[in-house]
Design a protein that fits this description.
Distance between the termini: 39 Å
Mean pLDDT: 94
Strand order of the largest sheet: 3-2-1-4-5-6-7
Helix content: 40-55%
CATH class of the largest domain: Alpha Beta
């Protein structure tokens, strides 16, 4: 898939690895100027160095002042801000437990990044986009925001919030030429899911096949398969999709695939 992203200015949060890096790489390969942002500047720089279109910024989405500085730097250097991809996110590995055992500090940590951080980034970027009368916001949600999963109460709550916040932003900003859409990945092969499921020493490797039994394609997705969806949403020719959450899950949420 190719898109003409030449002349566009893009910022991807959590872009040092995984889905975020795959999205940033795709945007850059298709001609866009891409700011790879992450918690650790050296990690962002390493990811961005693979393409001449890449630039790196240190960015913690839980710090509004740092967000404001990043947006100001993008506009100062490029004169515009076309596409924001809210990808930065966290989940829990150590606390896969029912709600009555789920620690409040872990709840606060996940919500601060996955939902409040997305709100802060969207707030800052959309202020610039409104003045331009154009822009795209792409939010990475999860199938866990569409179909609740057990033992992940904070992640499920945060991603469900992302789904409806995406739609609310689309309603508010659409009249100003800003398109806001989301992506809901299913289980995707990343460094994090290897530690949980797909690695030889994964915490839940014994149950991974039961999970994949719900996926008609019978496998996890790849980060590039999620990145293709982000590229589609960012493509200038995709100009009438607004307020949609694109599910990329191998058919997981389409319905039951097993006989009862």
């Amino acid at each position: 898939m190719t898109s003409d992203l030449r002349g566009t200015v893009n910022l991807v949060t959590g872009a040092a690895r995984g889905i975020g890096q795959a999205i940033a790489d795709r945007f850059a390969r298709n001609g866009g100027t891409v700011y790879y942002t992450d918690l650790v500047l050296a990690d962002a720089q390493a990811a961005a160095s693979a393409t001449p279109n890449g630039r790196a910024l240190e960015l913690d989405v839980t710090k509004p002042a740092q967000i404001a500085d990043a947006v100001k730097q993008v506009v100062a250097e490029c004169g515009r801000f076309d596409v924001l991809v809210n990808n930065a996110g966290v989940n829990t590995m150590a606390h896969r437990v029912p709600i009555d055992q789920f620690p409040r500090d872990e709840w606060d940590r996940i919500l601060a990044v996955d939902l409040t951080g997305l709100y802060e980034m969207s707030k800052a970027a959309s202020a610039v986009m409104r003045g331009q009368k154009r822009g795209r916001i792409i939010n990475i949600a999860s199938i866990a925001g569409l179909v609740p999963l057990r033992l992940q109460c904070a992640f499920v709550a945060a991603k469900a919030g992302v789904v409806n916040l995406t739609k609310a932003i689309a309603l508010e900003l659409g009249p100003h030429g800003i398109l806001t859409n989301g992506i809901a990945p299913g289980s995707t092969l990343t460094e994090g899911t290897r530690k949980l499921f797909y690695g030889d020493d994964g915490l839940f490797k014994e149950s991974v096949q039961r999970m994949l039994d719900h996926v008609p394609l019978g496998r996890p997705g790849t980060v590039d398969e999620i990145a293709v969806a982000a590229q589609f949403l960012a493509d200038p020719e995709n100009s009438y999709m607004n307020g949609h959450v694109l599910t990329v899950d191998g058919g997981w949420t389409a319905g039951y695939t097993r006989d009862f």
